[in-house]
Amino acid sequence: MSDTKRRDDEDEDAGEIKGPKKHHFTPLELQKKQLDKLLEKIDKPVLIPERSNQTRAPKEPRDYVKNVQGSSAGAGSGEFHVYRAMRRREYARLKNMELESKEEREQREHEEKINAMRAADEEKTEKNRNKRQKRKQRARNNSLSKKKNSSRSNEGNEDEESEGEHSQDDREDNKRSKRESDDEDK
Question: Is 35 a residue whose pLDDT tops 60?
């Protein structure tokens, strides 16, 4: 009788649930559990790993191919699947090589374009700098010639012929410099 009583007690224990029932967590429950775990240790810093931007290159092709046939089917029935897998890997490798070469080519073209634009900008800047310097030089020459003319008129009565020659020479120099600047601007 004691044996039957023991069995009955075991059966009753087997029917009872001891603690929470185990089940698969939903994504919401998993996230809640992770957040609760993080909030328990609020003082501890959390390290978040960064993703790498580089894509993985496919594995290099093997030097040898094991050509093992299965015994469960007719002779050579597994060859097609092996061939398909090899072909798929090779196409993926070739596609990756083409993408890399395309990216390198685009990068090189972009750098060439930038260098050409910089050269054009520098050339234009140099041309404008030369124009500014010529204008400044002409302005200096004109101011010097005006000072000379004003100082001559203040000196008094000198030979009128010499003054006429100087002013005529100045006018010719001014005309010549204007023609040169117009030719250079074209």
Answer: yes
